[in-house]
Structure formats: structure tokens, C-alpha cells
Design goal:
By secondary structure, the chain is of the alpha/beta class. The chain has helices at residues 2-5, 21-32, 39-46, 63-76, 104-113, 118-129, 132-140, 154-170, and strands spanning 10-14, 35-38, 49-53, 58-61, 79-82, 96-101, 146-150. It contains eight helices and seven strands.
């Protein structure tokens, strides 16, 4: 089985847009020397989408193409995958699933600064209020590998990176 051959863990960092996934993933990659894979960038760079969704102002991801693109890297291990969705990735890929959560007022300000308006802004705030990504992660992966982390401030991100770095250092391949 692929997971038994990995010498380094794979981590999924997920959460509503604006919760600090890319900042956390980049810092964690630097601290651990794991590979940071930003799925949004990968989709754009490799055209792993089925066009543009005018209503949600984003690409329509082709999940099969994304998974095909990542399969070999994930089998190898040592990856931090950064994306706002999680339910389409194979369960076998991840040793830890991190769901970043942010206070709604902080999130509102972050998304507004990014230019989110109207339904794009309100839909993302509602996702955070109703903990959609945490529920999605718990339904898609074994509960013991899913962890929710607060991500409101720079101190939170620093603390999260430190605890995840400790986890990576203590990780052992499955026998």
C-alpha cells in the first residue's frame, strides 16, 4: 500500500477562504522542509478546471484532473496541501487534516480586503458560521486525524505552525 512506503507525512490544510491556509502552509513548509502545494495555483497553472463560474467568481475545479495530477506526489509523501475544500481527495493521502477557523468579524475584514463582495462574501461567512469545512473534514477522514485550529491572529498562526511542526517531527510511518 502506498501509505506504508511514505517516509514523510502528508497534511491537508483546509478552511474557508481567508482563514490563513496559505500563510500557515507556507510557514509550515519552511519549518519542516515539506512541499507546499497550493491547489488554487495548481488549478490555474495546469488548467485543471472546466471553465469559469460567473456566479461564484472562480474556476470550476475538475476534481479528477487535480487528483490525477497529485497522485504520484502524494504517494511519495512530504506534502502540505492547501485548499478550501477537502471531500474529493482520497482518504489514504493524508496523515493529518487541519481545519483552520477564524472569527467571523476577522474573516469578514480579510475577505473584504481581498475584494470579496455580495454573495461571494456572504456565502464564505456563512460557511464559517456553520463550520461547513470542519463537518466536511470529519465526514471525509478518520476523526482522529482531523484537528481544528483557531487562526485569528499572527500569534495563532505562529502557535499552529509550531504545534504542527512538532507533530511532523514525531510522525512515524504506518507499519
Amino acid at each position: 500500500m502506498a501509505e506504508n512506503r511514505r517516509k514523510k507525512p502528508n497534511i491537508l490544510v483546509t478552511g474557508t477562504p481567508g482563514t490563513g491556509k496559505t500563510t500557515t502552509s507556507s510557514s509550515l513548509a519552511e519549518a519542516t522542509q515539506l512541499r507546499h502545494i497550493n491547489i488554487g495555483e495548481l488549478i490555474r497553472e495546469k488548467n485543471l478546471h472546466d471553465g469559469w463560474d460567473d456566479q461564484f467568481d472562480c474556476h470550476v475545479i475538475n476534481e479528477d484532473l487535480v487528483c490525477d495530477e497529485l497522485e504520484d506526489l502524494m504517494e511519495e509523501g512530504g506534502n502540505i496541501v492547501d485548499y478550501h475544500g477537502c471531500d474529493f481527495f482520497p482518504m489514504r493521502w493524508f496523515d493529518r487534516v487541519v481545519v483552520l477557523q477564524t472569527d467571523n468579524t476577522v474573516l469578514y475584514d480579510r475577505l473584504s480586503e481581498r475584494g470579496y463582495t455580495g454573495s461571494k462574501l456572504s456565502n464564505n461567512i456563512e460557511c464559517e458560521i456553520f463550520q461547513v469545512l470542519l463537518e466536511e473534514a470529519k465526514e471525509s477522514y478518520p476523526e482522529e486525524i482531523v484537528v481544528a485550529l483557531r487562526s485569528d491572529t499572527v500569534d495563532d498562526i505562529t502557535r499552529n505552525v509550531a504545534s504542527l511542526t512538532d507533530w511532523v517531527r514525531s510522525w512515524q510511518p504506518k507499519a
